[in-house]
Specification:
Four copies of one chain form a homotetramer. Chain A has 210 residues and is mostly helical. Chain A has ten helices and no strands. In chain A, 40% of the residues are buried. The structure holds a DNA duplex (21 and 21 nucleotides).
Chain lengths: 210, 210, 210, 210
DNA sequence: CATGAATGAGCTTTCATTCAT
DNA sequence: CATGAATGAAAGCTCATTCAT
């Protein structure tokens, strides 16, 4: 097993508070500048501490970045984990998943952008941190959808396309917010609110078997 | 100052060739590192010239970046400009637009990512360069769709949501390619090919009036 | 004030053990990186304790360095102190001194290198620590040799040159070991063993009066 | 003196001047602090330029260090190269080599100390730069001495010991100058002058066959 | 006693940019 | 036109040291 050496040290209470300060600042800065564009000076300043203090908690820039990314991905996987067969209706199950994804984007737009930025730039810093927790869950859910398709319980769709299009649409309001703010400034808040009212029916219509 | 100082100088043939070299290199580097993460040294090296030579063509880093962005946006607007009433059927008109957007993403993934990166980071360097050419066209097309909706020629949808969801889905395979490559490595080429086969019917189903 | 503030504090048994740990680590690190190149972090790590713990025993980096140096010099003076008139023959007296110096270099190569490094760099940190204990003994022994020369009991030589050449040759295998290891790798151990067999006869031939 | 061209050489002439400035400063600083203890800031300041300017000529600290070291070693090898069979008498041939080594130490004490410091610390930065040019010449000369010994033209000595003791004694006045200055301050200049008067007869006596 | 926590100063290096040629 | 040369600013990171616990 490869040792996870970029996890924060064993934590006391003060340590955990400090780490949380750093996380918040790092989220801000990394999500708006990307890894290379962000500076740990800026993060430290925003976290209200000196740069060496920050580096006392995270050995270097990469370690901090990967720690945030790891945490973000775990958060991100929550809605996907909850996608299963507990409810009777696969269509509604997927619609509920979409709803949860939208809520997550609404509540954690910085995390969404951080993740998007990393992917956009080719995932150069965290191949394992990204895919290790993601891959298994992804394929399990893809299989689940595939079974639903084959059982005729949802319409005939490629599960990969379905999943990726859900991700694209549900994260779009977080990731491309600046564009929406520029193009539809007075609609921005209502669009955030409405997103589910648009997307959920769209996918319900798509998925409902004829 | 409304002086447009980041446009490249008037160019001879040789100059235009060198500018094109710079464009290609800059596209590569900016799209994979973002504005702050990219270095003009790296761009100059990749373009096969010295940094001062590069700066002879573009006054500074921002000017180069904005020039590329401007060019990218113009390219990007092509499919949207072509969305109009020439064909008789609005549903098919929009489907054709989706098809063109997908083709564009397929052919110009770096441009898509460059644009996405800029938006993701809050459009800090090019508010005007992005929105000046985009805004008018966007609103014209939104109005057009709105008229189609009001005339009952397409189903009742918020044109903003419709447009944004089209953008999200059609650009996703370019912008998030690294994720798809990691999660569905053996499906990657077919997904690129299939994208229209999934998306166009989805939107046709959504838009076709009942 | 002639306050000696870089001597270690009065010590319990446990304390003396920890000091010894520090000494050993510091000897390693200082002798291979010099004063400025060495870091007390590295020393503390190698001594198996935290840096503040190390600094509890030695007030600062200089104090630690000077303490080691002082100790080393005392060790170093042992062979020289034993150079006197107890044996009847001055030539053999000096040959015995040479033998003792060689043995010392063999047994304490790190100490030799530490000392050599300090001198090489101009003795910037420990003028007094080096010369205070050394000077008197040195001049006493120089006078002794001078008397031997004047009494015709050893050949006519400048005592200074004699002493320095003895120091140079007897310490060379310790101080320049890396060079010898590179140039005569398979001879290295035998050269260490042989050193006295070469040097003692050389000086005996030089010193025996005609 | 024999300057030939003008225009095309000009840039590299300036470059060589600048490099020489840097060399002199670097020699000073590296020889008195060792590699890790030296700072390129200090070197740049002493060379009268900014640190980035220095790094324009030498890509990084190591490159600068190795360049000086390489140059020093070439200088150092001069006297050894000249050790051969041209003069009829091997004893005098070796004595002449000793004389040349002493002269070199006298004229280039900083170079001697730089070299000594690198060896003292275990040659961590320049194994190849040190040994590549040194090894072959060393072994050729060792063989030469060995033949002289076997032919009975010099006394029976291990060539390795002989060579190392010559190196030790001839470089000692440069490398350990600070110690001599401290112990024999009023003798320092005369000792420098006398060194050959002491060492050459010593080795002549040692080497002359009985 | 021992260490977790903190930081100013300094390190090596890269960056965007200017200027003379 | 093109580049060698130069640099202030800022980057990531290490260092010796202090202090509270």
């Amino acid at each position: 097993m490869t040792q996870i050496d970029d996890a924060p040290r064993k934590a006391s209470r003060i340590q955990r508070e400090r780490q949380e300060q750093i996380f918040q600042a790092a989220l801000d800065v990394f999500s708006t500048h990307g890894f290379r564009g962000a500076s740990i000076n800026q993060i430290a300043a925003q976290a209200g501490m000196s740069t060496p203090s920050l580096l006392y908690y995270f050995n270097d820039k990469q370690a901090l970045y990967r720690a945030i990314l790891r945490r973000t991905i775990e958060l991100w996987l929550g809605p996907l984990h909850a996608l299963n067969e507990t409810s009777g209706d696969p269509v509604e199950e997927i619609c509920a998943y979409i709803q949860r994804k939208i809520d997550m984007s609404r509540n954690f737009p910085r995390e969404s952008r951080l993740f998007a930025a990393e992917i956009l730039m080719g995932i150069p810093h965290a191949q394992d941190a990204v895919f290790e927790p993601l891959r298994d869950t992804f394929h399990i859910k893809i299989s689940l959808i595939d079974r639903w398709v084959n059982a005729g319980r949802i319409s005939q769709q490629d599960p990969h396309h379905l999943m990726y299009s859900i991700w694209a649409t549900t994260q779009h309001y977080a990731d491309f917010e600046a564009q929406i703010a520029g193009l539809s400034p007075n609609r921005l808040p209502t669009l955030w609110e409405d997103a589910d009212a648009f997307l959920v029916p769209m996918y319900r219509k798509l998925l409902t078997p004829t």
